[in-house]
User: What shape does this take?
Amino acid sequence: MPPVLVTGATGRIGRGVIDRLVAAGVPVRALTRQTEAAAKLPAGVDVVTGDLTVPASLDGALRGAGAVFLLWTAPPTSAAAVVGRLATHARRVVFLSSPHRTPHPFFGQPNPMAVLHAEIERLLAAAGIESTIIRPGMFASNATAWWAPALRAGDVVRWPYGAAETAPVDDRDIAAVAARVLYEDGHAGGDYVLTGSESLSQAAQLGIIGDVLGRPIRFEELSPDEFRGATEGKAPRPVVDMLLAAWGATIGRPAYITSAVADILGVPPRSFAEWVADHADAFERAPIPSS
Ligand SMILES: NC(=O)c1ccc[n+]([C@@H]2O[C@H](COP(=O)([O-])OP(=O)(O)OC[C@H]3O[C@@H](n4cnc5c(N)ncnc54)[C@H](OP(=O)(O)O)[C@@H]3O)[C@@H](O)[C@H]2O)c1
Assistant: This one.
């Protein structure tokens, strides 16, 4: 069996894809820009260096590869050249996109990432590559970046749009779906929106974190402008504006929920509480340094 080339191999989703492919006995080649990454990946994985912004650097990685898991966090300029190379070498591509075609206000707001995802999908279609598109909604693990710093320091989270509902999807379910559609037949042309199974307000998600940690968490609502001020210099303004627009637009609406994870994996998606329980360490109070 030719190896599956996994891009984004050292990141949240790609790393999980590798673990599941290895468990299924599928040969894996992992792409990274970091020469020292081999030590962090499972034994037996063929680690190759390459950079999506330097298309010629991918030739070695693509030689002899069967399918490719494509995840794009790089700038968009080299996307056309990379897709051209994929079309020459790979039998099929599974692309990690987002639900930008889903008719729900949360997904319908201006979003530079969605523009990039749509462009890569267009390039894949134009190149005639057999492809499968997976479109996760909010990752459950966003909670770590968003709320762990405040919860390690105390019990108060200051955040906007506490009433905005999302259906966080566990990174492990996204990775499991990606791996499954890479090695299982029947997914060519597949287009799957992946969500968790519960519509939870952001305040409710914090309530679940508090329940799992066994400590009360106080939610303090910030206005959008207060949130822009609080994230100044810490998060890119376009990302902050994208999130504010999506949360604001979904107020009063339950989150969009699909059955795709269960349909593909044959088991229900993991709950947000399960994700929190398995990552509780990230939210535990930092120890007070002894004097
Ligand atoms: N967060 C969400 O709620 C959400 C929802 C829907 C979709 N998404 C999409 O999910 C993707 C992010 O996935 P993730 O969280 O798993 O990513 P991540 O943890 O941030 O990891 C990024 C990966 O991309 C690789 N990478 C970055 N620049 C590269 C380059 N120039 N050439 C080759 N590899 C490069 C990095 O590899 P090295 O450093 O080892 O080279 C790393 O493995 C994005 O496309 C995002 O739009 C996110």
In short: The mean pLDDT is 96. The chain has two domains: 4-138+169-194, 142-167+197-255+270-283.
